[in-house]
TrEMBL record:
PROSITE patterns in the record: MATH
Region (Disordered) residue spans: 1-22
All copies of domain MATH, residue ranges: 1-106
Name of the molecule in the record: MATH domain-containing protein
Xref: CDD domains: MATH
Length: 124
């Protein structure tokens, strides 16, 4: 994301995200960082695709959602993206050479700034 929209970070939890009740699952989150320079009341509507690559089938498995990010909700993710037992089962094709491929695509639908703090005066 650009400076006026914050920076986006992909955060994988390969051993599970226990704080989000994601035990026994690989978790994957997108987070908007560097929000201190954004205007008060900001929010970003985004289309998100999260991918994991299945080497045995040579294809991606995806989760797709539309979410709203804001100062109160600067991250979104799947606490149970897929079971750890699938990651550790080599016949499932996710873990190859001790590596797993996890990706995310973040497409801005809109960025809304709170104009009420800009001193705008609307007259009829």
């Amino acid at each position: 994301m650009g400076r006026e929209r914050g920076e986006t970070k992909l955060s994988p939890y390969p051993s599970g995200h226990t704080e989000a009740k994601g035990e026994k699952h690989v978790a994957l989150y997108l987070e908007i960082e560097e929000t201190k320079d954004l205007s008060p009341g900001w929010h970003v509507d985004a289309s998100i695709k999260m991918f994991r690559f299945d080497h045995s089938k040579d294809k991606y498995l995806t989760v797709e959602v539309t979410e709203r990010f804001s100062i109160a909700h600067a991250s979104w993710g799947e606490s149970a993206f897929f079971p750890l037992k699938d990651l550790n089962n080599l016949s499932k094709g996710f873990l190859v050479n001790n590596m797993v491929t996890l990706e995310a695509a973040f497409l801005h639908i809109s960025v809304v700034k709170d104009l009420s703090t800009r001193g705008l005066l609307l007259t009829p």
